[in-house]
Amino acid sequence: MKKHNFPLISPLFLIGVLLILLPIFTVMTLDRLEKQKEFFTQRLLEKGGSLIRTFEAGTRTGMFTMRWGAKRIQAMLLETSLQPEVIYMMITSKDGRILAHSDAAMVGLTFDAMPGTAKMNEDTALVYHRVRLQKDQMQVFEVFKRFVPIRSRPIRGHRRMDRMSMLRVEDLSDRQNTERGFLDWSRPYLQSQEGKMSEMVEHYIFAGLSMEREKIARDRLLKETIWRGILFFILGCVGMVALFVFQAYRSAKASLTHVKAFSDNVIQNMPSGLVTINSDHEITSMNKAAKDILGGDLTQPFPQMIELIQEMEISQGVLNREINFAIKPDHEVRLDIIASPIKESENEVMGFLFLFRDLTQIKELKKQVETNKRLAAIGKLAAGVAHEIRNPLSSIKGFATYFGKRYEDNASDKETAQIMVKEVERINRSVTQLLEFSKPMAIEKKQVNINELITHALRLVHHDLDQKTIETKVNIDTEKAVIHTDPDRMNQVFLNLYINAIDALGDRGKLEIQVQDAVEDGRIEIRIMDNGIGIDKASLDLIFDPYFTTRPSGTGLGLSIVHRIIENLNGSIRVESTKGRGTCFIINLPVS
Predict the structure, then answer these.
(1) Domain that residue 236 falls in
(2) Fewer CB within 10 A of the end CB, N or C, for the chain?
(3) Triad 86, 88, 94: Cα angle to 5°
(4) Interval 251-309: pLDDT, tens
(5) 452 in the same domain as 561
(6) How far apart are alpha carbons 189 and 193 in whole angstroms?
């Protein structure tokens, strides 16, 4: 059973989101509450002001047309207070005594929350408001102003009619007040002359409006704000989580792309070859080293790879082999291969991986090391033997020369003596070559023209070339025509290789010398090619060994000396040959 680990949201993350969103929600909520408060204040103020002005207009009409007194004003105040949201209405004197109230029981009592009247007297048209907490702890929105039931400047055309009406109301009021036993507080308005009231008349009207509707709206707004805040908090968390997830996805994708590009670059530039094959035995990928070793892209696996796959399917393990691969009919490489199955998480094989390196160069290096060992051993032997041979050879040559002169008249003896001298000279040449091979080689490098060096050596064998009608061709394709080397030693190298080529060529053969830039900077490559009899495969590994020769008259030291000279010039020499098709000696030399 697989376990999936889901990342939990850190509490610090939630606290961070809360700290970010909480001030925003608080500011938004306070702003909305303030705007709602302003809206309700304006609404209640407009309603209270309209209510007071309407009452004043009604009072004015009742007083001057219908002869109203305090009783009728009290009744009208009660009727007006029955409107929705109106808690009470009252008229007070400047000392706070309640002259009229929507609750008749309050008439005659003192209003203990009387506001300052100075501002209200400056402009009697202005309406003021305040929020007042009553004794029952209920908040009331109170609208109030100076009570002005008469016009400050009556219209001239109506002045006479108003005067007559006031006289009638005055007579009526006097009678009513006399019957009731006290003075009617509204009488001074009826007794005012030309719209001017006595300074003693200073009354104020109050309208108390209910704030229950505002409280309900405020509570609803708070609840909505809380729920909206919770919703926004959840959405904010989801948004932040989504943002982090998206950022993490982008970061992971970028990292994955970077890692993939890096791994692809590593695989493509690794020095060992890498090939992957799927379960259907199809090649799925190859790196650059694999293409270089195997000679380009493969269309299908080598049979040896299929054999390794079959073996891995049985063993389910890693294999290590050294195998020869025939890249081309005439080209074979030896590879050190590590083969491994590619498995999925369920341990199911999904393909196979082959990691290999070319052992051909290592094999060549091993051969060169063995050759050098043999050459060193022979050199040491030659140094010891040459001196011991030369002294007896001098004596033998002296006696052979003596007998040749003494028996000069005897043709048979003279010929025998001459043969002895020639053989001694031949032995002496071999000993000289041995000494040359064994002692340290002196190198004197100079600036020489490679073209002149090649053609000079050709002129020395010109007679032999003409005898066999051998065609020669020189192709110099390099900008490094002047090199720093030992001309005498290189002349010795060219002469040995030319003579070997002439011996291998028949009549009308072809000898070609090519010079071109090497792959490495600062080096040139010289190819000496012939289309002669070639060298068999078994002899290719031995041709640079001392005393190995395929010619009956050869000493077997010529190519050994060539090899030694090239090595002392910090170069390399190798040979490519196919029996019956010709031979090519490839010399790699430094330019400086």
Answers:
(1) 217-267
(2) N
(3) 135
(4) 888 888 888 888 778 888 888 889 998 888 888 888 888 888 887 877 788 888 888 88
(5) yes
(6) 9
The per-residue pLDDT for range 470-484, each reduced to its tens digit, is 899 999 998 888 999
C-beta atoms surrounding 185 within 10 Å: 17
428 and 483 assigned to the same domain: no
In the sheet that holds 331-343, the strands lie side by side as 283-286, 273-278, 349-358, 331-343, 319-328
Pairing of strands 139-146, 128-133: antiparallel
Question: Alpha-carbon distance 173 to 398, whole Å?
Answer: 188
Question: Tokens for 248?
Answer: 């993490």
Q: Do residues 92 and 114 make contact, with C-beta atoms less than 8 angstroms apart?
A: yes
Cα angle, residue 89 at apex, residues 83 and 90 outer, rounded to 5°: 160
At 449, give phi and psi (nearest 5°).
-85, 120
Unique residue bearing structure tokens 């011996």: 503
Say which amino acid occupies 296.
Answer: G
Distance CA 97, CA 203 (A): 10
Query: What is the identity of the amino acid at 85?
Result: E
The percent of residues above 70 in pLDDT, for the chain, comes to 84
H/E/C letters for each residue in 257-278? HHHHHHHHHHHHHCCCEEEEEE
Q: What are residue 558's DSSP bridge partners?
A: none
Strand partners, 380: none
- Measured distance between the N- and C-terminal CA atoms of the chain, rounded to whole angstroms: 70
Q: In this structure, what are the phi and psi dihedrals at residue 169, rounded to the nearest 5 degrees?
A: -65, -35
**522: left (phi > 0), else alpha (psi -120 to 50), else beta?**
left
The answer to whether residue 14 sits within a structural domain is no
- For the four alpha carbons of 15, 16, 22 and 28, in that order, the dihedral sign comes to negative
Cα separation of 240 and 465, whole Å?
Answer: 90
259 lies in the same domain as 274: no
Contact call for residues 284 and 351 (beta carbons, < 8 A): yes
Question: Is 5 inside a domain boundary?
Answer: no
Name residue 90's beta-bridge partners. 101, 206
For the beta carbon of residue 311, count every other beta carbon within 10 angstroms. 13
What's the rounded Cα separation, in Å, for the pair 309 and 317?
A: 10
**Same domain membership, residue 194 and residue 63:** yes
Q: What are phi and psi of 243, to 5 degrees?
A: -65, -45
What whole-number distance in Å separates Cα of residue 28 and Cα of residue 231?
14
Answer yes or no: are the C-beta atoms of 509 and 341 closer than 8 Å.
no
How far is 144 from 45, CA to CA, in rounded Å?
10
DSSP H or E segment with residue 404: helix 360-406
CB 355 within 8 A of CB 274: yes
Encode 195-219: b = buried (16+ Cβ within 10 Å), e = exposed. eebeeebbbbbbbbbbbeebeeebe
- Alpha carbon distance 141, 131 (integer Å): 5
Q: What's the CA gap between 467 and 476, in Å, rounded?
A: 26
Residue 120: CB atoms within 10 A of its CB come to: 19
CATH of residue 489's domain is: 3.30.565.10
Q: What pTM, to 2 d.p., does this model score?
A: 0.40
The answer to whether the beta carbons of residues 303 and 375 sit under 8 Å apart is no
> Given pLDDT bands bounded at 50, 70 and 90, which one contains residue 310?
confident
From 518, 515, 536, select the one nearest 583 (Cα to Cα).
536
